[in-house]
Here is the input.
Amino acid sequence: MKIKYLGHACLQIETMGKTIIVDPFISQNPLAKDRIKIKELKADYLLITHGHADHVLDVELIAEQNKEVQLISNPEIGQWFSNKGLGGIQLNHGGAISLEFGELKMVYATHSSGLPDGSYGGNPAGFVLSNEEGTIYIAGDTALTKEMELIPLFAPNLDLAIFPIGNHFTMGYEDAVIASDFVQCDKVLGIHYDTFSLIEINTKEAVEHFKQKGKELILLEIEQSITL
Ligand code: NI
Ligand code: MN
Here is the structure.
């Protein structure tokens, strides 16, 4: 499983021969827009955690050059995009499905989820993705929440937890350390930081803070990847 960081909360995951883009927000991301050729991005699936613009902005742009792309989201976001002609799979909290790239379960996140035009965006969510190549937890935008303690009950051997660490709109890196205890995974990929001034963090301190707790915080450059 190869996970490429496309800035902010956007990831391109290549696994089991399929390509999944999570939360596309590139064309207005000041750190990513000049580096990533959005018109050349490939995706078989678009995985959406919630309705905020910094997670759904480029869904249609990516769908334009990926005609067969399937949107995976909650029903409210799914309906909103279906009205724009985009098809997909609608899930809600606790729902697990088997897809060609593995098992996918939508899990709880505590945040909000309005769509860019003010429409109701349903509940924010995270995902647990599991297949022969590994098991990862994509937390989505969320605060630290006790609900995360449920994840090891059905995903006891996480290979990677992907957490927002930018504070202000989500948990910060100190809470992300506690979250990594809750999900029993000491290897964390940090996202959702430094994109704009409100979520700027001291990345050196963040990495050091994880280290002191015996954990690893991975921070990627835009377009850099990790492989599980
Ligand atoms: Ni959000
Ligand atoms: Mn966000």
